[in-house]
Amino acid sequence: MPHREEPTEFHPDQFPPFPDDPQFPSVNLETISLKALESNDPTERERAFQAFKGRGFVYLELAGTDNGDTILHGADEVARAAEQTFALPLEEKLRYKPGNRELFGYKNVGATNADKAGTPDTAEFFNVSKNDMIVPDSEMRRAWPSVVMEHKPLFAKYCRASHATGLLIMDLLADKLGVPREEIRQRHRIEDHAGDHIRFTRGPPRKTAEMPEIQTPSHTDFGTYVACLPLPLLNPCHSQVCSADRQICNSITILMNWLGGLQVWSTSSRHAGPLEPDVPGEWLWVKPRRGCAIVNLGDAAVKFTNGVLCSGRHRVVPSPGEQGKVPRYSIVYFVRPTDSSRLKTLRGSGIPAAEDQDEEGVEAKEWIYRQAMGLGSRHIDVT
Ligand SMILES: O=C(O)CCC(=O)C(=O)O
Ligand SMILES: [Fe+2]
């Protein structure tokens, strides 16, 4: 059992509410019931499909299913473990910096650029690998702090529930697009090595009312490759990426947060790479909702579907109003294509033909790494 002190800053029951104030305009996301998806409810499946084609973000109501309950209750426990992890001395955390072309481990405050001017970000992350959490200790590929090891069963359970939930959603998207489910499932087998991880994030309290600081810069969730094709603009979300070095990679993201701070760009776009939005619009707040995860597609979903599905642009800023007085935690699970799977446009009746369908595709691991580098990471050893 953990033997560290009780958490002192993650106490969601005491967090102030999201301010009800027009100066914080929020986005209206569809709420999808996980229970209804698990029962194959046709209306709910269709609503989810439309939302993932449109903005690419939904609220997912979790209660009432085993996986949903695991995520809902597990996220609080994971956040308490995250607090203990971040409470370690910086020197110790820095021992877990990613290296050797890996993205797992600790990202310190200021390790990435928040904008083109090179302003440093203000959040710290710890990325805990799914594969290491679900295998016996002897098969783990990395060393982890003892606080992570103490919570390994919790993390393993959380990974399995999140991964299964992501695949359930990907099954419905495959059905709607006329893609055999196995095409997606074989690229996301839980036992196969992948960049999947639980990310703990801690953002510091807001410093001033106007504070322009950025905790996590504008991005789409990479993890699955976006082709470098001049794609037809079938969907406002979709755009072309024509350099082989600018691929994309993350399939689906399951996010739990308790305080405002997440913002989505009001206009759908999916240009990979630039830190700043490249279509006119504004940042809209995503209000956290008790009992719901925020689920969004990543760039791999765009790649697989030749732009039919949307990977929404988002960022994290300090929480608004009174909420900004406390540190902000979020717990994210990223479902990613397995390292050796090939990223290319899939064949399906709902997917427009693409030039890469007959090609072998890019290896997911390489694609994710390149994408992370493109985001301005300054901490990863490229060699
Ligand atoms: O902290 C959040 O609410 C979102 C985090 C996020 O977008 C990410 O880690 O990719
Ligand atoms: Fe994200």
UniProtKB/TrEMBL annotation:
PROSITE patterns: FE2OG_OXY (PS51471). This is Fe2OG dioxygenase domain-containing protein. It comes from the Eukaryota. Residues 194-337 form the Fe2OG dioxygenase domain. One of its GO terms (biological process) is small molecule biosynthetic process. Residues 1-12 have a biased composition (Basic and acidic residues). Belongs to the iron/ascorbate-dependent oxidoreductase family. It comes from Friedmanniomyces endolithicus.
